[in-house]
Write a structure and sequence with these properties.
The chain has about 70 residues and is α+β, with helices and mostly antiparallel strands. The chain contains two helices and three strands.
């Protein structure tokens, strides 16, 4: 893990097209701004984890390849 120190008004560049800006710091709360292409999803980690969980649950109810083959044979 890379650990960087930044102050209010400073930024970090990821790749060629993602910029993370430190907008404000108040005590242990840091406000950041993220400038990224619309094609890149940006989520808070707890939201990302909920999306992943929902996706896993949704795929549990999908038919297997074997079940699909049997359905086609009918």
């Amino acid at each position: 893990m890379l650990v960087l120190s930044r102050r209010k008004g400073e930024s970090i560049i990821i790749g060629d097209n993602i910029e993370i800006n430190v907008i404000d710091v108040q005590g242990d709360i840091i406000k950041i701004g993220i400038d990224a292409p619309r094609s890149i999803s940006v989520h808070r980690k707890e939201i990302y984890n909920e999306i992943q969980k929902a996706n896993r649950e949704a795929t549990q109810h999908l038919p297997t390849v074997e079940q699909l083959k049997k359905m086609q044979e009918k």
